[in-house]
């Protein structure tokens, strides 16, 4: 976007809130699935039940209640018309910049310069080994406004000599420990592969939009297995873009998402075991070929599934 002076600026929207007939809708805009689930449940709450007429004397009261019901339905439908706009906000261009790696830079110093965590940058860019990065590579930095210059440490023989002299004159217990770079944390084996196959679309930024999971192509009807034991908290086709969708809540903060299924084989509230077949691969929702869209979420935050799979 550009203002009247021709200078560019960016808008970051993280949360949405509005009221419909006294009821408040609140949701995060940081990921599309959270917004969609919250909105559809809110919409369902706005659809009133039809009052039953039990005696003629209540006709006036019943008429009034029907009038209120009609208002709530109209307002809910108006909110529904806004849904595509809200989903565009949630699925839009990710907020951040691409940093082009220069000679001498490493991932630790790049992240420190931008004030972001090494783990988040590694997952967004599918970097499982920090030594993988090379000069000229572009790395997406979430939340950044502009590309910054990474200050590299200056090393000279005289400075190194001075540092050595200083260290020998300081008691061992008082020597400051050098700053240790963060490590990329892999939790391999925390979850199992729900379907075996090659990843055709990775986690992170895809075609200028957030992709909160991985896509694994498979023949239609292939069994989809639960990545870990847990409880089914969602099993429906309410969210059109995801098609038949299952969400399983696991012990602790984690949950897993299975989308575009041909058929869901488990119901909401059902307990499932690790490796249990919960669905069949399909192409429902916004999908052109049969595949599984698989997500790992830490609370509401999408995480890179590759960092948790064997």
Strand content: 15-25%
Tell me roughly what share of residues is in helical segments: 10-25%
Write the element-wise H/E pattern from the N-terminal end onward. Answer: EEHHEHHEHEEEEEEEEEEEE
Structural class: alpha+beta
Pick out the low-confidence regions. 1-13, 83-91, 159-176
Q: Summarize the biggest pleated sheet.
A: 7 strands, antiparallel
So, CATH architecture of the largest domain? Distorted Sandwich
Q: What is the general shape?
A: globular
Q: Radius of gyration, Cα only, in angstroms?
A: 26 Å
Write out the CATH superfamily name of the largest domain: Glucose Permease (Domain IIA)
> How many angstroms separate the termini?
43 Å
Number of strands: 16
The top-level CATH class of the largest domain is: Mainly Beta
Q: Would you give an account of this structure?
A:
It is a single chain. With 310 residues, the chain is an alpha+beta fold. Residues 1-13, 83-91 and 159-176 have low confidence and may be disordered. Strands 7, 9, 10, 11, 13, 15 and 16 form a seven-stranded antiparallel sheet that branches. Helix 1 packs antiparallel against helix 2. It folds into three domains: 15-91, no CATH class; 93-184, Roll (Membrane-bound Lytic Murein Transglycosylase D, Chain A); 204-307, Glucose Permease (Domain IIA) (Distorted Sandwich). It has helices at residues 32-46, 59-91, 107-114, 118-124, 157-168; strands at 15-20, 23-28, 96-100, 138-142, 204-206, 209-211, 214-217, 223-225, 230-236, 244-249, 254-261, 263-264, 271-272, 277-280, 291-298, 301-303.
